[in-house]
Structure formats: C-alpha cells, structure tokens
Amino acid sequence: DQALYVVATPIGNLADMVPRAVEVLQCADLVAAEDTRHSQRLFSHFDIDTPLVAYHDHSDEERTNRILQRLEQGQTVALISDAGTPLISDPGYRLVREARARGIRVVPVPGACAFVAALSAAGLPSDRFTFEGFLPAKAGARARALEQLAAEERTMVFYEAPHRVADTLDAMADAFGSDREAVIARELTKAFETFHLAPLAELAAWVRADSNQQRGEIVLMVRGAEKRKADELDSESERVMALLLDELP
Ligand code: SAM
C-alpha cells in the first residue's frame, strides 16, 4: 500500500539488519538510496532485487518529484542511506517533508543508529543529551561552535571524520577544559569496536599516540558542564536583590 518507508540499515554488522527492513525493501516498488552502488552490496546479501534510484537532499527537484509521483500513483517507496538511520546526518529530510505535505503516509522502520549505539554503551549520563552531528570542518568555525556549547549541561554527541578526530579533541579540550570527561566510540558493531573514556586532554593525547585510533568511523561524546549549584545560584540572586534594594528610594 502507498507509503514512504524510512528504513534503517546496519552500521557495520550485517546481522543487525532487522527482518522487517528486509521484508519492506523486498516488497517495495522502488528504493531511494544515497549511493546505489553501496546499497547493491546490502541487496545482494539479503537477496533483494527491488530497483534502486539515487537520492540526496541536493537531488534536483525533478528527481524528487519523480519519486513523489510514484508514491502518488499508489506505489511503495523505501528510503535508505549508506548506513544507519536515514535523516540522521544523512539525506531524506526534503523527501519526507514533501511526502507528508502531499498527504502520503511516512512509516519508519527503526534499526541501527550510530549515536544511539554509542550513547547506550559509553557510560556517560544518557537521561538527557544533545545530538550535534558533524562540527564545522574549518578550525575557526569549529572553535566557535564548541564555544557556544561550553555551558551545555547535557551530554553532547558528535560525529567526526577520522582525519579530524585528534584536532577536534584538542579543540574540545580548549573549549570545555582539559578535565571534562569524554568518550570516543569507534567502529561500532565491527571487528575493531573500541570505547575509551578519559578527560579530554588525556583522550586527545591517547588518540594522537596511536594512529589506529584515527581510523574508521567515530562518535565522540562529551559530558555536560557541571550544573551551577543551587546555593551558588541562591547567593547570586541574594547579591542581585541587595543591589536592587539599595537602588530603591
Ligand atoms: N545515518 C547514520 C546513523 O544512523 O548513525 C549516520 C550517517 S553519517 C553520514 C556517518 C557518521 O556516523 C560517521 O562519520 C560516524 O561519525 C558515524 N558512524 C556511522 N557508523 C558508525 C560506526 N559503525 N561506528 C562509529 N561511528 C559510526
């Protein structure tokens, strides 16, 4: 039946593919994929022979419209990305938005997502967190982005490219302080899966000392800033109150 299925695929370990995802991809009329060649490997592994078309958020309007037309004709389309959950630092937003605007049913098929896997096993507070995706690539813009997060009290989660991870950890130590606790989660669900928790400056040095830690796919997580203590806040408001009272006639 007519629907756009947003289907998660594994982030490394093919055994993480959920049965419903296989079924939906097999039964769909069309699969929109970030990189059709990449997805072909997933398809052969699971005996899926549904036609694939390329889709990115910068795909031209005509391509997006062709996919939407198929949906409007009553066909079923599935959206996948190279790995993990579509729309999470991956294409799909425009298609989902447009499909919903046209009254088309959009159905998630949940599965692997790198930041959820990372956070679930890191040992940092996970009751509240903020997902920051990729930081800007240029040093200046990255430093400004981190500066704006310096007072964030929730655990912060970032995706980072391997060739930038050491510089990013240094920049994080500058912005958040050397002692702020952080975790690198690398190659999740794969043979060289690694978690390492340490204060930022130590973590940066550890990553720099071993080039293996600068390879593969990486999630960085940083503990939030210490909450300002309640009595600290109280004395601050008392001080402000006293100043204000002094000004009263
Ligand atoms: N949509 C994906 C998801 O659900 O997580 C994320 C896509 S994003 C383009 C790719 C980034 O996700 C990588 O650069 C890395 O930061 C993170 N990532 C993906 N797979 C990973 C893995 N197996 N281990 C660690 N990080 C991973």
What can you see in these coordinates?
The chain has helices at 19-27, 36-45, 61-72, 93-101, 114-122, 139-147, 165-176, 200-209, 230-247; strands at residues 3-7, 30-33, 52-54, 76-80, 106-109, 129-134, 155-160, 181-186, 194-199, 218-222. It is of the alpha/beta class. The strands form 2 sheets. A 5-stranded parallel sheet has the order 3-2-4-1-5, with helices on both faces. A 5-stranded mixed sheet has the order 6-7-10-8-9. Strand 8 (181-186) and strand 9 (194-199) form a beta hairpin. Helix 3 packs across helix 4 and helix 7 (165-176) runs antiparallel to helix 8. The model has no long low-confidence stretch (mean pLDDT 95). The protein binds S-adenosylmethionine (SAM). This is Ribosomal RNA small subunit methyltransferase I. Pfam families: RsmI_C, TP_methylase. Its EC number is 2.1.1.198. It catalyses: cytidine(1402) in 16S rRNA + S-adenosyl-L-methionine = 2'-O-methylcytidine(1402) in 16S rRNA + S-adenosyl-L-homocysteine + H(+).
Could you list some keywords that capture this structure?
single chain, 249 residues, alpha/beta, five-stranded parallel sheet, five-stranded mixed sheet, 9 helices, 39% helix, globular, binds S-adenosylmethionine, rRNA_ssu_MeTfrase_I, rRNA processing, S-adenosyl-L-methionine, transferase
Question: Layout of helices and strands, plus pairs?
Answer:
Blueprint: E1 3-7, H1 19-27, E2 30-33, H2 36-45, E3 52-54, H3 61-72, E4 76-80, H4 93-101, E5 106-109, H5 114-122, E6 129-134, H6 139-147, E7 155-160, H7 165-176, E8 181-186, E9 194-199, H8 200-209, E10 218-222, H9 230-247
Parallel strand pairs: 1-4, 1-5, 2-3, 2-4, 6-7
Antiparallel strand pairs: 7-10, 8-9, 8-10
